[in-house]
């Protein structure tokens, strides 16, 4: 995608933009590619933004203007990719003090944006852009994806960033004393409660069928941290709350996946995808890296993972769609309500389904996984294919009992090395190095897909997005 021939200059010149300014942009862009110099790249990006500002909003452009806008975005992205290839690792080392400081991916991006103004977007710039509909954005977040992809492409910095994202959030550490004392924390869109020796994490995004979005992912990660860090909790249970949607009024649903209305209206950040895959989902799968575990850039990547982890049960009421289905691939046991279903419609929507491309084939085989991801196949829990994902399928009125029995089976006779067994299983199924390589591709591709025209077309065709309101 980023090896753009000179023929791609022609759409810029054909869009009735000021010819001198268009020529100057193309010249400085080509110079930035040749020199890989910060000043040249900054000038190219500012020149490209100036041209974009002279076009109508993206959704209102003529075909020629749309082609010009896409060419400008991709030409500057190509130059930025080459720049990050040369300097992303060195700036990472500088910002993390040679690996002695752990930065979450958002903090890393804000620090890098301060060092490279205009090349990476600031929080203020993204906040201003969030006022636009998704169809009218010209791709400020794309450079974030390119930068993180280059960090992940290097084994040392990639592993360091993944370990940083496995550390407990600061909010989790602040809430831990209260959680230990009371056994309950209400985080708004997520709640966590100790019942016996189990930590029950519940998604509470009732208006949107317990979807995963910017308002949910952070609280859900904090609730996961608290469950993992509580010294008396031995197992975690993940479930959706009863919802107030007319179709399911008062009934539990697990998760409807990502909030497509928020995406369409430009309120869903690219960073949220990274928080899910590198933070929430990876902590469910791997646990948390405890505070007293030191880190450095040259930490041996072949050593056993030194995380604090626990078993997780997912209780699926009604459906696990998209990100909800992805959660089932990182827990240890799935109890599904009879008649419930799982599916991954991300391809139909226009983006990648997290790490499901890597994980789902382990459960159902590559052929069925291709059907699910590329052809939108749905799996009902009480079918042979659905039982490859669900360990147990029970009537709706038996769900609570099934969860209790599963907890008792897991911890009733004393738990023997669940963390050690999970780590040993992962050596075959998904060592951290395999995830690093996957994320190198995921962070790159998702940045473009998140801001593509096809995403908007798909949401309008399959989701009736024009008619939906937040």
* Strand-pairing-aware structural class: alpha/beta
What's the oligomerization state? single chain
Q: Give, in spatial order, the strands making up the sheet with the most strands.
A: 1-2-3-4-7-9-12
> How would you characterize the largest beta sheet?
7 strands, mixed
Gross geometry: globular
Number of strands: 12
Please tell me the overall pLDDT.
92
Task: Sum up the structure in keywords.
single chain; 470 residues; alpha/beta; three-stranded mixed beta sheet; 20 helices
Brief synopsis:
The protein is of the alpha/beta class.
Helices and strands in order:
Blueprint: H1 9-13, H2 19-35, H3 38-53, H4 63-95, H5 105-115, H6 123-129, H7 142-153, H8 155-165, H9 170-182, E1 184-186, E2 190-195, E3 198-203, H10 214-229, E4 235-240, H11 260-264, H12 270-286, E5 288-289, E6 307-308, E7 311-316, E8 319-321, H13 323-328, E9 333-337, E10 341-343, H14 346-349, H15 356-364, H16 366-374, E11 379-380, E12 392-394, H17 399-411, H18 418-429, H19 432-449, H20 453-463
Parallel strand pairs: 3-4, 4-7, 7-9, 8-10, 9-12
Antiparallel strand pairs: 1-2, 2-3, 5-6, 10-11
Helix pairs in contact: 2-3, 2-4, 3-4, 4-7, 7-8, 7-19, 9-10, 10-12, 15-16
């Amino acid at each position: 995608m980023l090896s753009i021939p000179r023929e791609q200059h022609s759409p810029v010149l054909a869009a009735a933009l000021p010819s001198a300014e268009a020529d100057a942009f193309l010249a400085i862009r080509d110079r930035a590619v040749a020199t890989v110099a910060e000043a040249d790249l900054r000038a190219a990006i500012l020149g490209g933004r100036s041209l974009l500002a002279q076009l109508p909003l993206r959704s209102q452009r003529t075909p020629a203007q749309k082609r010009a806008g896409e060419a400008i975005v991709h030409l500057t992205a190509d130059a930025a990719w080459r720049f990050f290839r040369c300097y992303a690792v060195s700036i990472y080392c500088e910002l993390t003090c040679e690996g002695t400081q752990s930065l979450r991916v958002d903090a890393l991006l804000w620090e890098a944006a301060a060092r490279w103004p205009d090349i990476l977007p600031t929080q203020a710039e993204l906040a201003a852009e969030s006022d636009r509909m998704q169809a009218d954005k010209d791709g400020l977040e794309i450079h974030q994806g390119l930068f993180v992809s280059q960090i992940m492409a290097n084994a040392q910095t990639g592993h360091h960033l993944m370990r940083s994202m496995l550390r407990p959030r600061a909010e989790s550490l602040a809430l831990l004393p209260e959680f230990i004392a009371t056994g309950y924390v209400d985080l708004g869109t997520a709640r966590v409660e100790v019942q016996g020796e189990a930590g029950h994490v519940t998604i509470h995004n009732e208006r949107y069928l317990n979807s995963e979005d910017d308002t949910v992912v952070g609280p859900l990660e904090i609730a996961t941290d608290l469950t993992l860090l509580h010294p008396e909790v031995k197992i975690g249970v993940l479930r959706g709350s009863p919802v107030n949607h007319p179709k399911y009024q008062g009934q539990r649903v697990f998760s409807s996946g990502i909030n497509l209305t928020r995406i369409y209206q430009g309120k869903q950040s690219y960073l949220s995808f990274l928080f899910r895959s590198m933070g929430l989902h990876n902590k469910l799968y791997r646990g948390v890296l405890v505070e007293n575990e030191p880190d450095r850039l040259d930490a041996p990547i072949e050593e056993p993972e030194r995380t604090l982890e626990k078993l997780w049960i997912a209780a699926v009421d009604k459906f696990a769609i998209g990100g909800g289905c992805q959660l089932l691939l990182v827990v240890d046991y799935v109890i599904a309500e009879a008649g419930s279903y799982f599916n991954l419609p991300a391809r139909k929507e226009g983006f990648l389904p997290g790490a499901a491309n890597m994980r789902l084939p382990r459960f159902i085989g590559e052929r069925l996984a291709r059907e699910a991801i590329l052809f939108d196949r749905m799996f009902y829990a009480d079918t042979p294919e659905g039982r490859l994902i669900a360990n147990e399928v029970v009537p709706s009125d038996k769900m609570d009992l099934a969860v209790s029995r599963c907890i008792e089976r897991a911890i009733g006779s004393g738990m023997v090395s669940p963390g050690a067994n999970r780590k040993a299983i992962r050596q075959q199924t998904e060592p951290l190095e395999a995830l690093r390589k996957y994320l190198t591709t995921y962070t790159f591709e998702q940045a473009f897909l998140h801001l593509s025209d096809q995403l908007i077309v798909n949401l309008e065709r399959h989701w009736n997005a024009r008619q939906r309101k937040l």
